[in-house]
Amino acid sequence: MNEIVTSVQFSASQMLPIALPQTEIRAARSIVVSEMELGVGQRLVIRVLTMWVARLPIADPPRISTSFGAVYLGVYRGQDDVARPSGMPLILLSASEVGFTHFVAPVEVALSLPGRYSILVVNNTEPEIGCPIQVVVSGAARVSG
Predict the structure, then answer these.
(1) Could you tell me whether strands 71-77 and 30-38 are parallel, antiparallel, or unpaired per DSSP bridges?
(2) How far, in Å, CA of 22 to CA of 39, rounded?
(3) What phi and psi values does residue 8 have, to the nearest 5 degrees?
(4) What number is the average pLDDT over the span 19-47?
(5) To the nearest whole number, what is the mean pLDDT of the chain?
(6) Is 33 left (phi over 0), alpha (psi -120 to 50) or beta?
(7) DSSP summary character for residue 39
(8) Domain count of the chain?
(9) Does residue 7 belong to any structural domain of this protein?
């Protein structure tokens, strides 16, 4: 849906970059890529997220959670312990091989419940294996309201 954005609406919104340069994540670890707090009446809109797995030294390594790939990017709400994400992310990018994966919403994904939203990239490989993974993350979000 195309909308005309007025100057009042534009000034009430804030664009937030989502970016992590090429970074190595050790087995069973996660990194907070971005975090934002939504108040009552605010909306978080995520239209694009990308993740590039630059290095995965072991083909098909054993995973902690078999529901996800060796590395995944997730948008979570209300995570108290972002070092150990739990539950299903609201938006998920998952990969088990070197390459590019992305989320491009055909329509905007708007999150409007007040609270803290965290974007995490997680190395989902078993710690005993010691499989460091190198990833790059990018995207954009908008907070309005």
Answers:
(1) unpaired
(2) 32
(3) -65, -45
(4) 94
(5) 89
(6) alpha
(7) -
(8) 1
(9) no
Regarding pTM above 0.85, the answer is yes
Residue 14 forms beta bridges with which residues?
143
Pick from 11, 40, 42, 17: which is nearest to 143 by CA? 42
Task: Confirm if 68 and 48 have CB atoms less than 8 A apart.
Answer: no
Q: What is the pLDDT of residue 1?
A: 47
Strand partners, 116: 37
Lowest mean per-residue pLDDT among 1-5, 9-13, 115-119: 1-5
pLDDT band at 3 (very low <50, low <70, confident <90, very high): low
Domain assignment present for 86: yes
- Give residues with Cβ within 8 angstroms of 128, minimum separation 6: 27
- Give backbone dihedrals phi and psi of 124, rounded to 5 degrees, phi first: -95, 20
The three-state secondary structure class of 9 is helix
CATH number of the domain where residue 125 is located: 2.60.120
Residue 3 domain-assigned (yes or no): no
Read off the pLDDT of residues 36-94 as tens digits, 9 standing for 90 and up.
999 999 999 998 999 999 999 999 999 999 999 999 999 999 877 666 778 899 999 99
Q: How far apart are the first and last CA of the chain?
A: 19
